[in-house]
Predict the structure.
Amino acid sequence: MTDALLPALIQQMTAPAFYPHPVKEPIQCIQTHISYVLLTGDYAYKVKKPMNFGFLDFSTLEKRQHFCAEELRLNQRGAAALYLDVSPITQVGDRFQLGGIGDAVEYTVKMRQFPQSSLFTELFDRGELTASLLEQLARVLANFHAQAATNDYIRSFGTVENIRLAIDENYDQTAQYVGGPQTQQQLDETRQYTDRLFAEQQALFNSRIEHNWIRECHGDVHLRNIALWQEKIWLFDCIEFNEPFRFVDVMFDIAYIIMDLDARDRRDLSNLFLNAYIEQTGDWEGLQVLPLYLSRQSYVRAKVTSFLLSDPSVPEPVKQEAAATAARYYRLAWEYTQPQKGRLILMAGLSGSGKSTTARHLAQTLGGIQIRSDAVRKHLAGIPLDTPGSDDLYTAAMTQKTYDRLLQLGITLATQGYTVILDAKYDRQPLRQAAIAQAAAHHLPLQILYCTAPLPVLQERLQQRHDDISDATADLLPQQRMDTFGNDEQPYITTLDTTQDLKAQLDQAAG
């Protein structure tokens, strides 16, 4: 849209004289279907369009004022340094004024402008979205969710009836694209998955409500709404205009990030982020509903892209590209719903033997879920993961409780189709025998990866360990021993020398 076709207010907001502070010329105007954003250099100003799309209603000045205030409130949770104020705009004659005298004729959200190069999408494109940065993001988002509000009203949005409304609507709105970017088989099978899940897993969704996992989340936390600026991660542009999009399961939120990375063919990075997030929250049970939300986020991306195909004003080359993009997201949404064969992998070995390093690598290779006994133990005790545990954390009773929880999680998730890696010492034969028996009872494949290294290597590794949730130290090694593996355990065991190149060994173990 040329400047001449812009509303008078927006035209004036592209002029430097409109602002009471220096600007960087020319002022750039970015337009979306619901707002105008003016970039002035140090600050950005967002003006909401007087639109009513049903799911979004900015049709009156009072509603725009309300949702500007909501945008400020909600985004200060994850990006307080970016969201500064809601400013009234007044009018004298044909001139508009920012914060002038008189009644407001419009409102604008004032934000601190940051470089587009700091967006996580840009970092990814430059190859700078590292493992450590994704682990940091996992901690930021876990903390964001821990502090997010919840109450009876918010939790009510976690019922099957409320969740499926938007999902079923997605299917209905995309039936017209079958034979184009969507296929009948994919639509039918994706819908059959969600119908079956909602019909058979009512107790699971009730459990999500009862355990307070339905919260006032971000609602749109994909990679383009995350920035690394001034050495901090910011979560911005959350959903302020629609409660059902924001009052959601925390798995709904993280599904955006995982899906974004999967769509970019970096499942190793999405796996790393997922494992880091789940370890922080202790919400391993949430993995049972994660495929639903992964499919939902991908399907919405496909749907919105498909809408371009119905717009006569969109050029044909753009439509061709949109069709290919939509097809990719429809297929990804379908893939998330396809049944997988789960399995159980037990790590075994003394402290410092390389179990966690090996498990982490294996998880990224296999798309597995790594569950560390150190994390399970501290979640059971209700202490932060980075807090050193007292002697009470390591009693025989607490150890048994930890391994019971590990195995319960492993069986639950493996029967749902996950490859689950139980990362613990498994130094006692009864602990291993219990896992073998449960895997057999549930017809799950089982492997035991026994990590070994010479004692001096174990000692050196433990002495150099830092910033880790494990409390194991080198002085504990003399007290540790491995029970001999029995004849009935031998068929499950692969021994790994972690002082050697693990790739060939892991290739064999993953075979």
About this structure: The radius of gyration is 26 Å. The domain at 120-336 is CATH 3.90.1200.10 (Aminoglycoside 3'-phosphotransferase; Chain: A, domain 2). The mean pLDDT is 94. Residues 316-336 form the longest helix (21 residues).
